[in-house]
Amino acid sequence: MTDPTPPVAPVRPVLRSHHGDEVSDPYEWLRAKDDPATIEHLEAENAYADATTAHLAELRETIFGEIKSRTQETDMSVPSRRGGWWYYARTVEGQQYAVRCRCPVEDADDWTPPEVGEGEDVPGEQVLLDGNVEAGDHAFFSLGAFSVTDDGHLLAFAVDTTGDERFTLRVKDLRTGELLPDTIEGAHYGATWARGGSHLFYTTVDDAWRPDKVWRHRLGDTGDDALVFHEDDDRFFTGIGSTRSDRYLMIASGSKITSEYRVLDAAEPEGEFVVVEPRRDGVEYSVEHAVVAGEDVFLVLHNDGAENFELAQAPVSSPGSAGWRTIVPHREDVRLEDVDAFAGQVVLSLRREALTRLQVIPLGPDGFGEPHEVERDEELFSIGLGGNAEWDPPVLRVGYTSFVTPSTVYDYVVATGELVLRKRQQVLGDFDPSRYEQHRTWATADDGTEVPVSVVCAKGTPRDGSAPAVIYGYGAYESSIDPAFSIGRLSLLDRGVVFAVAHVRGGGEMGRRWYDQGKTLTKRNTFTDFVAAARHLVAEGWTSHDRLVAEGASAGGLLMGAVANLAPEAFCGVLAQVPFVDALTSILDPSLPLTVIEWDEWGDPLHDPEVYAYMRGYSPYDNVRTADYPAVLAVSSLHDTRVLYVEPTKWVARLRALNDGAPQVILKTEMSAGHGGVSGRYESWRERAYELAWTLDVSGATR
Fold first, then answer.
1. If you average pLDDT over residues 91-108, what whole number do you get?
2. DSSP assignment letter at 320
């Protein structure tokens, strides 16, 4: 049997000229999504991917079976309380999507969520939305909004069945189960009710998929909805929500580096929103309502003169920065990330030493009390607030996980500081967390910076360089890749694979400065940090370069393309999921989805020749060369609106053209999916099994 022949994309040059640099792009024609030749090429790539991975079919099926057998398929989330109801989601064996339900609160003083055994009915259960029914025969299904009025009578929900992230927003009367005639097409994520449920607020996107308009819909009104706010600066997103107290509606506008909030009494939905603090370039802030010493105030988390943010208090009547009074000051070693206000306490989400933390500050008659931190004892972990819809609860819902601890839900008893275990993700089979270990190690970057690297493996994994390994990275938008448990990852660990996360600059693990040192004209630090982390793992004996696979998605996919060019010898394989690998072409074109708002992250190469030259020097597609590249699996989605399918398609074509056909390079495009890949849990498991089987194969891991 002869080996399959890689597809060859025809060369149809398109010229591009900026700042005196003329580029001939041979594969830009693939951007024409409606061109039959484009679809034909993608289908040829998929056929090649099928042929070259056919030998992994049995392994894929085995891994899929492992994921399925370890997962409690019929399950129920821990109910969260709002008003007179407990809200939760159920999954049922054999069904792709969750069923969203509620049951009545039987005792107003009892905050113990209802528990039922497998196969048992929940007393008084009411099914609010069955994702399986809503999905119907569609190949894709996504829920973009699920919002219940404060009286519990009405549900607003939004559905996308194509993957393009434009939703149909409907309203259901939960008393009768009937759908109301109110239907809104083309809505974006989210829906917010005014107090009393008479008005519904939602957002829409512009032609570049930027959420730019906030609308007000009066329930039952068949006329045009009212445009409440239009964000006309192309660098800014906008959206609307409400405070936990339900006292205020908030419109937030934000670029990557600047914020602006507008506030309105939720009882007056047709009133005028008032600006909290006018936008100032580089100043970010968020707003929460609290009652401190009997007075309504706004809590403002901001970075005005505070790189890692500080918490201030402001009067509701005059909330601008002139009246901000510092409550929690800035610290060099602590990044304040979020603030949540309740009737009896304020909870700060913060980050210290590359790990998340929760700090509870009690509220008493005289104001703020002494803060205390929710303590955990693992070396690596993630902790954060869960679903807390109530304003004055005696317990706070907290989520916790680590690389070796399955997702865990606690209720934190405010009065005593006790953590009450409500649920830990059940992992079926012979799973035993004591068989695994997690560590933090530090790699030294080219400029001497110490880069944290998290490692998890099976106990007893040899440290002689013989173990296969995966190193994961992202490094953009100040997003942090925090320790988290994964059932799918067990299929790697149990085969002797070491899994590592490189917390490279551009992410947020080490504070705002860490992010600033990996964006715009310092972006190369992200790539060199990752290569340094890979070499560090080899130097410490965790693995060897010929057994190390690099993995990243979206902006992390850009990282994959960049390090493949920078240090192809450091990896045996590169798994790039929806990879942003044609970054310069995309960021040069303001007509493309989300481009202009990205200029604060990457720089503006269209108008700034320095930024253009800098991006020209690292953009993966532009810097593909003749080299001994590792094996590549690029995974894309035809309907992705964030990273267009054309980016990995062009990248793969150029890798092939410059490297004798590059038979080890594979492109797999989902033809009915969006940025998050396929929908439905079983299809997602199969997709992950495909990637894991490929990873095991190229790293030479034991099957």
1. 94
2. S
CA dist 61 and 323 (Å) reads: 61
What whole-number distance in Å separates Cα of residue 251 and Cα of residue 267? 15
Distance of CA 214 to the CA centre of its chain: 23
Question: Could you tell me the pLDDT band of residue 673, with boundaries at 50, 70 and 90?
Answer: low
Contact 324, 314 (CB under 8 A): yes
pLDDT band at 591 (very low <50, low <70, confident <90, very high): confident
Q: Catalytic residue among 242, 259, 491, 554, which?
A: 554
In whole angstroms, give the CA distance from residue 553 to residue 637: 12
Amino acid code (one letter) for 502: A
Whether 163 has a pLDDT exceeding 90, the answer reads no
Contact 215, 199 (CB under 8 A): no
Residue 131 scores a pLDDT above 90: yes
Closest CA to 396 of 426, 418, 364, 378: 418
Give residue for tokens 């997709």.
687
For tokens 């994964």, the residue is 486
pLDDT at 641 over 90: no
Q: Which CATH architecture has domain 40-69+431-582+620-699?
A: 3-Layer(aba) Sandwich (3.40)
- Closest among 436, 440, 373 to 406, alpha carbons compared: 436
pLDDT at 3: 82
Distance CA 574, CA 428 (A): 31
The DSSP annotation for 253-273 comes to EE-SS-EEEEEEETT-TTS--
Residue owning tokens 């819809």:
389
**Tokens describing residue 679:** 């929908």
Nearest to 334 by CA among 525, 529, 519, 509: 509
- Return the half-sphere exposure (C-beta side, CA atoms, 13 A cut-off) of residue 181: 5
| Alpha-carbon torsion, ordered 518, 523, 525, 528, to 10 deg | 140
Q: Is 100 exposed, middle or buried (0-12, 13-18, 19+ CB in 10 A)?
A: buried
Can you say how many angstroms the Cα of residue 180 is from the centroid of all Cα atoms in its chain?
32
Mean pLDDT of 517-539: 98
CA 35 to each of CA 7, 31, 42: distance values in angstroms, whole numbers, following the listed order: 17, 9, 11
* Residue pair 192/203 in contact by the 8 Å Cβ criterion: no
Q: In the annotation, is 147 catalytic?
A: no
Going by DSSP bridges, is the β-strand pair 85-91/80-82 parallel, antiparallel, or unpaired?
antiparallel
Question: In sequence order, what are the beta bridge partners of 203?
Answer: 214
Residue ranges of alpha helices (H) inside 549-608 are 555-566, 583-588, 599-602
User: Are 74 and 426 a contacting pair, CB within 8 Å?
Assistant: no
479 is catalytic: no
Compute the distance between CA of residue 260 and CA of residue 589 in angstroms, rounded to an integer: 26
- Separation between Cα atoms, residue 340 and residue 336, nearest integer Å: 12
Among the listed residues 147, 640, 679, 699, the single catalytic one is 640
For residue 703, what pLDDT is reported? 59
Burial class (CB in 10 A: 0-12, 13-18, 19+), 474: buried
Q: What DSSP string describes 18-49?
A: ETTEEEEETTGGGG-TT-HHHHHHHHHHHHHH
Distance of alpha carbon 486 from alpha carbon 402, whole angstroms: 9
Domains of the chain: which residue ranges?
40-69+431-582+620-699
Q: Would residue 554 show up in a list of annotated catalytic residues for this protein?
A: yes
- Rounded alpha-carbon distances, angstroms, from residue 273 to 177, 220, 229, 252, 448: 34, 23, 9, 11, 49
Q: Which of 251, 240, 260, 130 is nearest to 187 (CA)?
A: 240
Residue 321: partners with Cβ closer than 8 Å, 6 or more residues away: 277, 302, 304
Annotated catalytic residue within 675, 679, 697, 699: 675
DSSP 249: E
Relative orientation angle of helices 57-70 and 681-699, to the nearest 10 degrees: 130
Using the 8-state DSSP alphabet, how is residue 588 labeled? Answer: H
Q: How many CB atoms lie within 10 A of CB 5?
A: 11
